[in-house]
Amino acid sequence: MDLKKRLLDLISPIEYDLILKPDLTNFTFSGEEILNFNLLKNSKKIILNAKKLIITKAILISNSKEIEARISYKEQEMLVLFTFPKEIKKGKYKLKLAFNGKLNADALKGWYKSSYTINGQKKFLATTQFEEIGAREVFPSVDDPSAKAVFNISLVVPKDLTTISNTIDKKVIEHENGWKTVTFTPTPKMATYALAFVVGQFEFLEKKATNGKLVRVFVTPGKLSQAKFALDVACRLLTFYEKYFDIAYPLPVLDLIAIPDFDAGAMENWGAITFREVALLVDEKETSAANKQWVAIVIAHEISHMWFGNLVTMKWWNDLWLNEGFASYMEYVGVNNFFPEWKMWEQFAVLDHNRALGLDGLITTHPIQAKLESVEKISEIFDEVSYSKGASVIQMLATFLGEENFRNGLRYYIKKFAYGNASTQDLWNALEKVSGKKVVALMDKYTKKPGYPIVTLNKNQLFQTRFFKSNIIRRKTKDSTIWNIPLKSITDKGDVDLLISKKSLKLKNDFDWIKLNKNETTFARIIYDKENLAKLKLVIEKKIISPIDRMGIIRDIFDSAESGYTRLDLALSVAKSYKNEDSYIVWAALLGKLSKVKNLIDLEDENKFNNYALSILSEIDKKINWDKASEDSHEKILLRSLILSNLGEYKDSKIVEKAKKLFELVKEKKQKVDTDIRGAVYSIVAENGDEKTFNELKDLYINEEMHAEKNRIGSALCLFKDGNVIKKALEFSISEHVRSQDIGRFLVISFENKFARDAVWKFIKNNWLLLITKMEGIGMDWIIKGAATITDKKLYIDIKEFFKSHPHPKLEKTMSQVLEQIESNIEWKDREEADLKKFLISNS
Ligand code: BES
Ligand code: ZN
Predict the structure, then answer these.
(1) Cross-strand bridge partners of residue 464
(2) Is 527 exposed, middle or buried (0-12, 13-18, 19+ CB in 10 A)?
(3) Does 302 participate in catalysis according to the annotation?
């Protein structure tokens, strides 16, 4: 924690009165502020956070006396200093300020402008993104999650514009000059990062949730028909979480706002949640099932933050996971309640658990309870560890405590710390107190230490050791951490409850076969000995265990092969037991792992690998076709597009031909091809297409209004195999046709394309400063993240040197993770090359 830059020991804010006037013609704003605060010690100076603000007036009011301050700035530290002629005694004061600032034009943070078009005319709106330290760009404050205060907000804007903030407008005064002052009801005590000020032309839908609270969905003009799904889901979730946490939603209104330019997916400003359009808008015909699910998940995530994050806030950013890990867990609780047929907990195992095991297998990971050297480094920990590992260890804890204990503990915690701040330890204490179980003993290692265990079964003995993804690291690093590993397990004789708390554990050997870690709820991996694995193959084929358990086995065997705990040809032969699989999550995991193997393979062997993959897909290929039936389940719809795109990827000729035909139909009229398979069509024609196809897709992108469709097309633009076309796709990503929020997708997807790697790396080097400016914010790591797929030594050396000569505080962690992963890929490829060739000769 960077105490030097925290202001809490000098001043404690109580209430802010803010009058803000954004100017959407000149893209500036001005503000007046009265800050009510407690000065905690005698001082000649008062210090607040401020960045890029020009403060024109600063007057301290003390017993109705006014004292003018001298204003100076420490720009690097993002501070403004008010110096007084004489020492001010500790006590309560008001500070009156006036200031000006600029609306951000490049970065999507602070107060920034976003654009949309109406009848071909470009229009602007102004919106805020304050998490984590954007508030200080808009008004002087103690911009710290622990400095909670009440905010009285007024916005001064032209009469025809809509204003949205955290609460509801209680008063509107119209001025003669065509402007109005909109005043909002006071907020509860809250953190600066969750404030929001949105001004622009909006349309909205509204509805009362069953708990009587008003819920509204705001969109830019013309998109209102896409707001209904979000409104319904938000109303239901608001009531659901109120019951779950057993504490009422404290604000008069919940607004959900679709913003055309947005860095993250969504932001949980209290009562005024902002979203990317794709994360909020649903068109009943045009939105794919996957996208609709994503919308529900994001809404559920952000609404759960109204309690976990906004009502109770982490004391400091090192405990960010308390916000994000919890919301990433609660999103599944919420969505699963309303859409059980979506099987969200199965998907959790792939979307969160699996992803977390990936990043946290690197030595360059970090503990969930992070150490932060400075505020600039906060954005680095918005990653799979805080989100997905956080959610996974919470799932483990909830399983360990039982649902009721877990929920009661949370209720106790939320009530105890409402309107205040808490730490990880506070949460453990609450759960321990309510459940009577040893929470700290279970959780400590998972949250304070990096990484997680891999458990090896050898005859009747289990051993634990830290899992490393890279064979290089695995061989040279000793880590003596011993985790407590609860392992509910399945055997042919029934379920057993195991707990490993030492280096090893002896099992009673009264079973024929065992699948450890039932439902994959413990954050660990397993490798089995040969005998047990041979038996598990039959268990898999006969589907005696659940999809999550079948998925866990194949995931772990491939990942263990990557790091050399086991052999790749073994994993590839176990994969053959999955031919009769029909579960979406199992295919998602298995095909994900196969594509990592394909990444190691040289062009000359690609056909052989394609044949091997097609043989695994041969049965499902017979069951899946392009046409949707009205009785298709959500799972079937997701499965269809997954299988079709993979069949295309592995060059199933009939699939490629059909995709080309469907693309002809798309060109006549998009709606002629079902939205759930359109993504697969675009990818397959791109993988097999030329410059003409590229231009057609590009035009579709440019003329498309809907963001979700743009994303599908945009991804396909990165999949061409011709070097010239690839260059065009990359140039297109920074043209005026692509919003800066979407550039990252282009880069990451291009890196997945073997044929594009040299070009995309060159492009990034050539445009480094431009990309850094355009993508500043949480999406910045997307500039380089995709490079983790590289297996080429020359490229590696170049990247390493470039990273060294272009350090950036917000990219330091991602850079080291990318390098660790590439080193591991290269070693993996070298190690397996010969055996892989042999395997493919006899298996294609
Ligand atoms: N608080 C975050 C948004 C955020 C992230 C702001 C990083 C500032 C920096 C929000 O709650 C969030 O986590 N959004 C996710 C949604 C998801 C995990 C469902 C996102 O944007 O991807
Ligand atoms: Zn979140």
Answers:
(1) 455
(2) buried
(3) yes
Q: Is the pLDDT of residue 3 over 50?
A: no
Query: Does 80 have pLDDT greater than 60?
Result: yes
Question: What's the pTM value of the predicted model, to 2 decimals?
Answer: 0.98
pLDDT at residue number 373 = 84
How confident is the model over 162-187, as a mean pLDDT?
Answer: 97
Contact 325, 391 (CB under 8 A): yes
Look up tokens 């795109």; give the residue.
645
DSSP string, 169-218: EEEEEE-TTSEEEEEEPPP-SB-GGG---EEE--EEEEEE-TTS-EEEEE
- Helix H or strand E segment including 341: none
Read off φ and ψ for residue 665, nearest 5 degrees.
-65, -40
Q: How far apart are CA 404 and CA 387, in angstroms?
A: 23
Name the nearest CA neighbour of 273 among 307, 240, 296, 305: 305
606/7 Cα distance (integer angstroms): 59
**Pairwise CA distance, residues 348 & 523, whole Å:** 13
Is residue 51 within 8 Å of residue 136, measured between CB atoms? yes
- pLDDT over threshold 50, residue 1: no
Taking residues 523-528, report their average pLDDT.
Answer: 98
- pLDDT single digits (tens) 455-507: 999 999 999 999 999 999 999 999 999 999 999 999 999 999 999 999 999 99
Give the tokens for residue 268.
Answer: 């949980």
Q: What does the alpha-carbon distance between residue 383 and residue 390 come to, in Å, rounded to a whole number?
A: 10
Q: For the segment 220-237, what is each residue's pLDDT rounded down to a tens digit?
A: 999 999 999 999 999 999
Compute the CA torsion angle 45, 47, 52, 53 (nearest 10 deg).
-70
Tokens (6 digits) for 87: 């020492």
pLDDT band at 777 (very low <50, low <70, confident <90, very high): confident
Return mean pLDDT, the chain: 96
Confidence (pLDDT) at 5: 63
Closest atom of ligand 1 to 305 CA is 11
Give the ligand whose atoms come closest to the C-alpha of residue 267: 1
Pairing of strands 214-219, 253-259: parallel
Please tell me the least confidently modeled range out of 250-264, 426-440, 580-594, 773-787. 773-787
Q: Indicate the pLDDT class of residue 2, thresholds 50, 70 and 90.
A: very low
Residue 370: name the closest of 167, 127, 132 by CA: 132
Rounded distance between C-alpha atoms, residue 698 and residue 718, angstroms: 11
Residue 508 DSSP symbol: P
d(CA 788, CA 796): 10
Of the residues 32, 302, 324, 346, only one is catalytic, namely 302
Instruction: Give the burial class of 758: count Cβ atoms within 10 A of its Cβ; 0-12 exposed, 13-18 middle, 19 or more buried.
Output: middle
Residue given tokens 């993804």 in the structure block: 469
**pLDDT tens digits along 358-383:** 999 999 999 999 999 888 889 999 99
Q: Which residue has the tokens 């009011």?
A: 61
**Which ligand minimizes its atom distance to the CA of 273?**
1
CB 486 within 8 A of CB 465: no
Name which residue sits closest to atom 20 of ligand 1, judged by CA: 265
Alpha-carbon radius of gyration of the chain: 28
- CA 131 to ligand 1 center in whole angstroms: 9
Angle between helices 707-717 and 691-703 (to 10 degrees): 160
Picking from 147, 154, 158, 214, the residue whose alpha carbon sits closest to that of residue 25 is 158
Ligand 1: lining residues by beta carbon, under 6 Å: 131-132, 264-268, 297-298, 301-302, 305, 324, 327-328, 331, 382, 387, 778
Dmax of the chain from CA atoms? 90
Q: Are 254 and 234 in contact (CB under 8 A)?
A: yes
Least confident of 106-110, 350-354, 513-517, 676-680: 106-110
Q: What is the mean pLDDT of residues 506-522?
A: 95
* Three-state secondary-structure class, residue 43: strand
Structure tokens at 835: 């055996």
Q: Please, are residues 742 and 776 in contact by the beta-carbon 8 Å criterion?
A: no
